TrEMBL record:
Belongs to the kinesin light chain family. Pfam families: Sel1, TPR_10, TPR_12. It is found in: Cytoplasm, Cytoskeleton. Transmembrane segments: none annotated. Keywords: Coiled coil, Cytoplasm, Cytoskeleton, Microtubule, Motor protein, Repeat, Signal, TPR repeat. Gene3D superfamilies: Tetratricopeptide repeat domain. InterPro entries: Kinesin_light (IPR002151), Sel1-like (IPR006597), TPR-like_helical_dom_sf (IPR011990), TPR_rpt (IPR019734). This is Tetratricopeptide repeat protein.
Length: 708
């Protein structure tokens, strides 16, 4: 709200002796005193005008006040010009006229009146009665701020913070906010407090930020009340206190902060505000759905914002519920494409976080189709949708489709953001992981070297991006049989993640799994067990008792125990892993091939050949369907099947499986790799058992101990 002078700015506008209003005499007409006004008479009339406007000692009369302000304003009195401008802006005692308001503000501002200068700045900033002009607004704010007017100092700080009418300069924003804060301006307190919380333009200091937000909130600043509510809700810098958050959000909502309703709804729906709060939140949602049925637009917005909030809180089930309710509303008005564009990715993300990749697929496909059908195709939104669609194909094991979509996303991001932009590097990271899965190690290494070069050209320090690059490079070295380098890279990645995330970080668990797999392939079983057990412990805390990442760790331990001959433990682990995987992903997900293979191998080593054959053949069918015919995981299952047949004395059935396994492993892995050795040894044993010593001897020199 713009200010008028009144008695609040006496030091600036009034000379000595002007502060006390005199009750006016009704018989005096302004027209009788126009000629030859003395300074004393001007003071008296100005005080009378203020008294009429405020109703101070006399019946309030805006018409009389405006008439007096005009008499004095026309004689060049800056304060009266400001007040007359305000009267025109508000329509108090005169017909409302923004043009006349601006004319009188300008007269006052040109005489150096700081409040008039600030009001002009607001009109130019907001486009009130004049074309919007941020540069003009900035100029007037600066004139008023330089005179020490707190509100202008605050708005000048906002201009610098937003880069509105001037180049963005957070340090300057902080400087002007501080000047306004020193004068007790609540809005400046809120704005500066927010910058301290974020560490923008000033060193992050949550204690100072919270103190400033509290001061502003006590003065009724709704933005400060909302932000302080978030601080209490999330425990950001202070202990979490949902009751305090609710109280602050209620005040912020009453003050016009609509986003507070979403925060309140979330807290109430999660039963943190008692039955009355839960009933109130449900009423808000029911009201939105009722309005939608009545044809009112925009009613899906609360569900969309709740979906985003639940997604931020890591609650995919609630995210899905809100997104579905919002989508049901949006479907009633398909011409409102904006709502669909907002809700479809939220629903797909919620389903993906629950490992429901097949369920997410049609929503992502629809999202891409919807954007591509738009006249401008919105390239920013399209590249995000393509990336999500690619990742979903990746998670479904549809690797060729994933690669095509990643490449399309990559091309768009390079064009939009530049070759070495973070958005481009993020896609390259996904592609390197994909190429490691498909064992296209040449492609993977080329991508990783590009990522490494970009990292060195940028900050170049130890961060999670570097750890990811090192981990993927380690896989390539492992495949090439360079185990020393693979171990060094994994250990460096582990050290980086432990430094950045702490000993219990999720990224730490992933690197530990990589190290465990490396140690297992080298026969270093005790080291592998420690790595796998530590990874499982971290994941159990991070994800809870049921998550596919937990199932993968159980499977890793089961496979290790199988290799160590601890078959009972192996069976327990693998059975748990498969049951959890089927529950979370569905019985037909390609990721379950790992569990089928591991359990089949355990049963084979226990002599339960019928069960082993069923699981191993199922794993082979899934892997051939998703990975193609020449993949090392297919070779692993072929090796296990061949070993199983050989253990039963069925050399004729074993031989084609082992021959094919060796052929794949020699193409994909280096000759020195332990897995190549293991298959050579198994096939050599088969040849000896069937009296083909020459063939066995041809394999034997390069066949050393190992398990495939």
């Amino acid at each position: 709200m713009r200010l008028r002078t009144a008695a609040r700015v006496v030091p600036f506008l009034l000379c000595a002796g002007w502060a006390t209003a005199t009750v006016p005499t009704p018989r005096v007409s302004p027209l009788q005193v126009i000629a030859d006004l003395s300074r004393q008479e001007t003071q008296r009339l100005y005080a009378q005008a203020i008294a009429y406007r405020e109703g101070d000692g006399v019946r309030q009369d805006h018409f009389r006040a405006a008439e007096l302000f005009r008499v004095i304003a026309e004689r060049g009195h800056a304060g009266a010009q400001l007040d007359l401008g305000y009267a025109y802006e508000q329509g108090e005692g005169v017909p409302r006229s923004v043009g006349e308001a601006m004319r009188w503000y300008l007269k006052s501002a040109e005489q150096g009146n700081a409040i008039a200068q600030h009001n002009l700045g607001l009109m130019y900033r907001n486009g009130t009665g004049v074309a919007q002009d941020p540069v003009q607004a900035f100029g007037w704010f600066r004139k008023a701020a330089q005179q020490g007017y707190a509100r202008a100092q605050r708005d000048l700080g906002t201009a610098y913070e937003d880069g509105n009418g001037v180049d963005k300069d957070l340090a300057e924003a902080v400087r002007w906010y501080r000047k306004a804060v020193d004068q007790g301006d609540p809005t400046a307190q809120a704005d500066l407090g927010w910058l301290y919380m974020q560490g923008e333009g000033v060193a992050q200091d949550k204690k100072k930020g919270i103190n400033l937000l509290r001061k502003a909130a006590l003065h009724g600043n709704s933005f400060a009340q909302f932000q302080l509510g978030r601080v209490h809700e999330t425990g950001n810098g202070i202990p979490k206190d949902e009751a305090a958050a609710i109280d602050l959000y209620e005040k912020a909502l009453a003050g016009g902060q609509d986003e507070a309703q979403v925060r309140l709804a979330r807290l109430y729906l999660d039963k943190l505000g008692g039955p009355a709060g839960e009933h109130r939140a449900q009423a808000w949602l029911d009201e939105a759905e009722a309005k939608a049925k009545a044809g009112e637009p925009g009613t899906s917005d609360i569900f969309y914002r709740l979906a985003i909030l639940y997604n931020e809180l890591g609650k995919p089930v609630q995210t899905e519920s809100m997104a579905r309710r919002g989508l049901a509303i949006a479907e009633r008005a398909p011409e409102d494409g904006k709502a669909l564009l907002e809700l479809l990715p939220q629903l797909a993300a919620a389903l993906s976080q629950q490992m429901k990749f097949s369920a997410a697929h049609p929503y992502l496909k629809r999202l891409v189709t919807l954007i591509e059908g738009m006249p401008d195709k919105d390239p920013e939104r399209l590249q995000r949708a393509l990336r999500a669609f690619a990742l979903n194909h990746h998670n479904l094991g549809e690797l060729a489709q994933a690669e095509a979509l990643y490449l399309r996303t990559l091309g768009m991001r390079e064009q939009l953001y530049g070759r070495d932009s973070p958005a481009v590097l993020e896609v390259l990271d996904k592609m390197s992981a994909l190429y490691n899965v498909t064992e296209e190690f040449g492609k993977a290494e080329a991508v990783l070297q590009r990522l490494l070069a970009a990292h060195k050209a940028g900050a170049g320090g130890d961060d999670t991006k570097l750890a990811s690059i090192l981990g993927n490079l380690a896989l390539i070295h492992w495949a090439r049989g360079d185990f020393t380098q693979a171990e060094l890279l994994n250990k460096r990645a582990l050290a980086i993640r432990e430094k950045l995330e702490g000993a219990q970080g999720k990224g730490v668990s992933s690197t530990l799994n990589n190290l465990g797999s490396l140690y297992q392939s080298l026969g270093r079983y005790e080291e592998a067990e420690k790595a796998f057990e530590r990874a499982l412990a971290i994941k159990s805390v991070a994800y809870g008792p049921e998550h596919y990442s937990i199932a993968a760790s159980l499977n890793n331990l089961g496979g290790l125990y199988d290799a160590m001959g601890r078959y009972a433990q192996a069976e327990t682990m693998c059975t748990r892993a498969l049951a959890m995987g089927e529950k979370l992903l569905g019985r037909d997900h390609p990721e379950l091939a790992y569990a089928h293979h591991a359990l089949g191998s355990v049963y084979a080593h226990q002599g339960k050949f019928s069960q082993a054959k069923d699981y191993l053949e199922r794993a082979l069918a899934v892997r051939e369907r998703t990975l193609g015919p020449e993949h090392s995981e297919i070779a692993a299952t072929l090796h296990a099947l061949g070993a199983m047949y050989l253990a039963q004395g069925q050399a004729a059935n074993a031989e084609p499986h082992l021959v094919r396994a060796l052929s794949i492993r020699e193409r994909v892995l280096l000759p020195s790799h332990p897995y190549v050795h293991a298959t050579r040894k198994q096939l050599a044993d088969l040849y000896r058992q069937t009296g083909r010593e020459a063939l066995a001897n041809a394999l034997a020199p390069r066949a050393t101990a190992g398990k495939g």
